[in-house]
Amino acid sequence: MHGYLTQGLRRAAQTNRSGIATIFGERQRSWSEVLARVARFAGALRGLGLEPDDRVAILALNSDDYLELHYSVPWAGGALVPINTRLAAAEVRYILEDSAPTVVVCDDACLSLLTQGTLEPRAKIYLGAGQPPDGWLAYEKLIAEGSEVEDAQRRDNDLAGIFYTGGSTGKAKGVMLSHDNLISNAMNAIPLVGYDRTSRYLHAAPMFHLADGMATFAITMVGGTHVMIAKFDAQACLDALARHQVTNVTLVPAMIAMMLDHPDVRTFDLSALRQIQFGAAPMPEATLRRALALWPDLLWLHGWGMTEISPIGSALPHDLRRPAVAGARMRSCGHAVLNCEIKIADAEGNEVPRGTVGELLIRGPNVMLGYWNKPEETAAALRDGWLHTGDAAHMDEDGLITIVDRLKDMIISGGENIYSTEVESAISLYPGVAQVAVIGVPHARWGETVHAVVVPRADAQLDPEAIRTHCRGLIAGYKVPRSVEIRTSPLPLSGSGKVLKPALRQEYALTLPLPSP
Question: Considering the entire predicted model, what is its pTM?
Answer without folding.
Answer: 0.86
